[in-house]
């Protein structure tokens, strides 16, 4: 494999899955750990990532939607299926940006619901479903991530109410704080939280701890976390102490 191609795959893995170890990257790409270490040194010199103990991390906020949508699809579908089952016909649903929210939208076809979103991919998915009342929030377009942001989006949200908010994240800290890599999305997410009766965080295993420099909210603002794997014990304890229900998608709840 050419070095340039390896570099592309390394950056894609770090952008979509958060911090990764040299061993993980070596196994994913089928090359030696020594080769990965040399690649990480070169990419850090180019300012494209930061090396950390045993691996590397990329903290980029504006990842192309199409690129992120290709990873961990089965995990996102498991989370989406569980989330869809939480909603009753006749209710209103607020869907955040992100690829897991898109997978959830695909589970809502044929339902009698109101769906509110700033996610253009969700809009495109549901636009022809006549059983769904679809509300598209206004705002400035983020072309790469197919979302609408800004004061117009926030103003729209102040005039709306939803039974459910399904929220995405870049990472969840051990204290239960929900983080995002893109500062411009944070005010919209906070406005969504205020507009939703029940707030459900959709977070696959890669989001613990994931990435993100901007705090969206604390665990006290969440009602439920739906994930595809057990959160680490410290994070789970922080969430449960704040009264958050942690649900593992696909696992029978007692």
TrEMBL record:
<feature type="domain" description="HTH deoR-type">
    <location>
        <begin position="3"/>
        <end position="58"/>
    </location>
</feature>
<dbReference type="Pfam" id="PF08220">
    <property type="entry name" value="HTH_DeoR"/>
</dbReference>
<dbReference type="GO" id="GO:0003677">
    <property type="term" value="F:DNA binding"/>
</dbReference>
<protein>
    <submittedName>
        <fullName>DeoR/GlpR family DNA-binding transcription regulator</fullName>
    </submittedName>
</protein>
<dbReference type="InterPro" id="IPR036388">
    <property type="entry name" value="WH-like_DNA-bd_sf"/>
</dbReference>
<keyword id="KW-0804">Transcription</keyword>
<dbReference type="InterPro" id="IPR001034">
    <property type="entry name" value="DeoR_HTH"/>
</dbReference>
<dbReference type="InterPro" id="IPR018356">
    <property type="entry name" value="Tscrpt_reg_HTH_DeoR_CS"/>
</dbReference>
<dbReference type="InterPro" id="IPR036390">
    <property type="entry name" value="WH_DNA-bd_sf"/>
</dbReference>
<dbReference type="InterPro" id="IPR011991">
    <property type="entry name" value="ArsR-like_HTH"/>
</dbReference>
<dbReference type="InterPro" id="IPR037171">
    <property type="entry name" value="NagB/RpiA_transferase-like"/>
</dbReference>
<dbReference type="InterPro" id="IPR014036">
    <property type="entry name" value="DeoR-like_C"/>
</dbReference>
<dbReference type="InterPro" id="IPR050313">
    <property type="entry name" value="Carb_Metab_HTH_regulators"/>
</dbReference>
<dbReference type="InterPro" id="IPR000524">
    <property type="entry name" value="Tscrpt_reg_HTH_GntR"/>
</dbReference>
<keyword id="KW-0238">DNA-binding</keyword>
<dbReference type="Pfam" id="PF00455">
    <property type="entry name" value="DeoRC"/>
</dbReference>
<keyword id="KW-0805">Transcription regulation</keyword>
């Amino acid at each position: 494999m050419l070095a340039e191609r390896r570099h592309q795959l390394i950056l894609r893995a770090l952008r979509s899955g958060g911090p990764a170890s040299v061993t993980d990257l070596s196994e994913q790409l089928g090359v030696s750990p020594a080769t990965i270490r040399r690649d990480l040194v070169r990419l850090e010199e180019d300012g494209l990532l930061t090396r950390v103990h045993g691996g590397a991390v990329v903290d980029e906020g504006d990842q192309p939607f199409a690129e992120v949508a290709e990873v961990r699809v089965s995990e996102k579908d498991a989370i989406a299926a569980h989330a869809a089952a939480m909603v009753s016909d006749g209710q209103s649903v607020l869907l955040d940006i992100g690829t897991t929210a898109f997978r959830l939208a695909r589970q809502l076809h044929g339902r009698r619901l109101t769906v509110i979103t700033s996610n253009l991919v969700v809009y495109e998915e549901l636009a022809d479903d006549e059983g769904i009342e679809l509300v598209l929030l206004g705002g400035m377009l983020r072309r790469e991530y197919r979302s609408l942001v800004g004061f117009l989006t926030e103003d729209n949200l102040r005039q709306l109410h939803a039974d459910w908010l399904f929220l995405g994240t870049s990472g969840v800290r051990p204290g239960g704080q929900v983080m995002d890599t893109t500062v411009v999305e944070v005010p919209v997410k906070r406005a969504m939280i205020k507009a939703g009766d029940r707030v459900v965080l959709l977070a696959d295993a890669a989001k613990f701890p994931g990435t993100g420099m901007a705090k969206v909210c604390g665990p006290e603002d969440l009602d439920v976390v739906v994930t595809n794997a057990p959160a680490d014990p410290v994070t789970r304890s922080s969430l449960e102490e704040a009264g958050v229900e942690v649900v593992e998608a696909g696992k029978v709840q007692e």
